[in-house]
Amino acid sequence: MSILEYNGGCVVAMAGKECVAIAADRRLGIQLQTLACDANRVFRMHDKLFLGLTGLMTDITSLHNSFDFKLNMYSMREGRLMSPQTFSSLVASTLYEKRFGPYFSEPVIAGLNKDNTPFLCAMDLLGAAAYADDFVVSGTCAESLFGTCETFYRPDLGPDDLFETISQAMLSALDRDCISGWGVTVHIITPEGVTAKSLKARMD
């Protein structure tokens, strides 16, 4: 088993019309043993920027604390919030500088630009970025998520339709992965604010 799959977990982000959604499962395990079903893999950087992290939970915690500190320092120095594009560059450089002893985590970045257009980015553990206009996935059931997202996704979805689409894609993919699941948290980011919803999933 890969070290990236040791604790399980997956994250998916999807773009809509002036909105973006990011969802993650809630299971925390050690290989096939489940420890908890309240793990947090999606973090609110600010009202229009969210970060999802999959991989080793200890590295997820370390990276979140590091990015939180760097984001606060940027806000104090510049007097403004960091844009999603700038934040993706910060994440990539942070991961790449540790390339010889990398963090075992693969980030997903979702947010809205100044003009409220969606921004989506996924990276590997060395910071190589992949930008997308529709959806990005990461984690143990990435292959299943690619299939379900390609099936359900339609361009220019509104917030409600986007929530339904990402929820169905996530729940369908989790049914095909035994080390992810046990509930899902979905965040919908719009110009008006952020809505967080919880989904029940299979508990076996």
Structure description:
This protein is an alpha+beta fold. It has a single domain, classed as Glutamine Phosphoribosylpyrophosphate, subunit 1, domain 1, CATH 3.60.20. Helix content is 30%, strand content 33%. The chain is built from four helices and twelve strands. The protein has helices at 57-78, 84-96, 142-152, 159-174; strands at 10-15, 20-25, 28-30, 33-36, 42-46, 49-55, 105-112, 118-123, 129-132, 135-139, 184-190, 193-199. Strands 10-1-2-11-12 form a five-stranded antiparallel beta sheet, with helices on one face. A five-stranded antiparallel beta sheet has the order 5-6-7-8-9, covered by helices on one side. Strands 3-4 form a two-stranded antiparallel sheet. A hairpin with a 5-residue loop joins strand 7 and strand 8. Helix 3 runs antiparallel to helix 4 (159-174). The protein is globular, with a radius of gyration of 16 Å. The two termini are 21 Å apart. The model has no long low-confidence stretch (mean pLDDT 90). InterPro entries: Ntn_hydrolases_N, Proteasome_beta_3, Proteasome_bsu_CS, Proteasome_sua/b, Proteasome_suB-type. It is found in: Cytoplasm; Nucleus. Pfam families: Proteasome (PF00227). Belongs to the peptidase T1B family. One of its GO terms (biological process) is proteasome-mediated ubiquitin-dependent protein catabolic process.
